[in-house]
Amino acid sequence: MDIKSRLAHALAQASGMDAAELENMLETPPNPEMGDIALPCFKLAKTLHKAPPVIANELSERLELPEGVAKACAQGGYLNFYLDAAKRIQDILEAVAEQGENYGGGSEGAGRTVCIDYSSINIAKRCHIGHLSTTAIGNSLYKIYSFLGYKCVGINHLGDWGTQFGKLICAYKLWSSRESIEKGGIDALVELYVRFNNEADEAMEEQARAWFKRIEDDDPEAMEIFNWFKDITLRDVARIYELLGVHFDSYNGESFYKDKWQAVVAELEEKGLLVESEGAKVVMLDKYDMPPCILLKKDGASVYATRDIAAAIYRKKTYDFYKCLYVVAYQQNLHFRQFIKVIELMGYDWAKDLVHVPFGMVSFEGQTLSTRKGNIVYLDELLERAVEKAGDIIEQKNPELPDKQTVARQVGVGAVLFYDLYNSRIKDVDFWWDRALAFEGETGPYVQYTHARACSVLAKSGVSPEQALACTDADLSVLDNAEGREVCALLEGFPQAVRTACDKNEPCVVLRHVTSLCQAFNRFYFEHRIITDDQAGTNANLKLCAAVKTVIKTGLGLAGIEAPVRM
Ligand code: ARG
């Protein structure tokens, strides 16, 4: 039983109220002078028919302090509890020892499925820095939800539908060959498309439409070429996903719904939601302060929103999700509000479980990036550059390091991910090399380095983290000082940080918590000698190192970042 439930049980004895109910009422006071835990007594006033200060006073007299609580003070309408610091340190280190790398996780999501739509790249286009956030955030949410027991389905909702694919096939037939596409890869496809847009005349446009029609109709030749283009794009992006350690459970993209959206339109028609507007069919949303949601173009073709509605219905049927998250830039806010509202108007109460998780824009060293300006930063190049730069730094700092290449990859990729994930996701990110790769400040390398420092202290003492955590001959009183208590408080708060990150779909909450833990641990490390003549004291210090190391690794892991043992 943890301290809060022990306290709740004691309070239940003293008040005659329900322990579980009381436990829910317990709060953390805004500052430590007011105690470590507080019971706001106005919440009991209704049941006990007394004024809150009276309740606080009576309870403080009647309460039998449970183990780990040093004192209880009535202050106004609050009953504040001060914990026994030594007991608290012992409890937290025991919890980390017991659960190891699962510390902070849980099973509250058991039996629930969460679909996460992320990365969702476009076929025949090259991934650039703009695809970093969706991939990083989506992957992190996948890990956070899984850690809490949810079953996750990662979906790469490919942008693989639209008349541009007719144009691409037409251009390919006119100007290219199998060999040159195989050789040129994604760049060759992009080039073909650009050339088509520059040179196409009406006759070619007509051919392009005919090719697209053949894709729509499942014509074997058209499908073979279309699938081949998809394959080339996915092969190209696979390298990026491998570097990032990202994977997907489904690649069902927009074209997957080419024979499914018609039923959606029929259903909307049947429910009387579709109206004609300038030849197109739309759902009016003026009552909700939104422009109409177009679902059928003049020529009878579907649009992005039609396919998103079909996809949501398909996902609900297939996965029966508890939540379906869409990790997509805030530029698409209106699109998500619109199509989710349409699903609600169709009468599906699960529309409330569709959650747009928006994020801000990425610029690079102060410049906004655009294809038009020709200053695109491609994602593969960004990551490769990061690995290279991390390699250079390692070469300078630690040329003797074994397996430098692996560590350079972990540090370089980690720096990029950390930089992207450290701030609340809605904020725009301006990417700077020197900031991302710095070993000081709130950065990936700083956190990884702290992890490596804790590992090296343990290695020097010849114990594994598990041994240090399991050691029974430890004098924990050496940790009962300002720095040690702060480290322990942060270890203690980690499970809550994971839950907050999950509730808000904000990976930064975990990374920020872990970064504070590193800062606190480094203060401890510089203030106190870890290895001393006193064996039991040393054992306690090593226990703390091991607990910190374990939680940093877990926290970084939840952001998709690796934790090298040496760097
Ligand atoms: N492919 C789209 C884009 O690059 C993102 C798709 C997001 N997912 C979705 N279900 N709409 O803008």
Describe the protein's architecture and organization.
- It is a single chain.
- By secondary structure, this protein is an alpha/beta fold.
- The protein has 21 helices and 12 strands.
- The chain has helices spanning 3-15, 19-25, 42-48, 52-62, 85-99, 132-147, 164-175, 178-199, 202-216, 220-244, 261-270, 304-319, 333-345, 379-397, 404-421, 433-437, 444-461, 465-470, 482-504, 508-527, 535-558; strands spanning 37-40, 69-75, 78-83, 113-117, 151-155, 274-277, 280-283, 293-296, 323-327, 354-357, 362-364, 429-431.
- The protein has a 4-stranded parallel sheet with strand order 5-4-9-10, with helices on both faces. A 3-stranded antiparallel sheet has the order 1-3-2.
- The longest helix has 25 residues, at 220-244.
- The chain binds arginine.
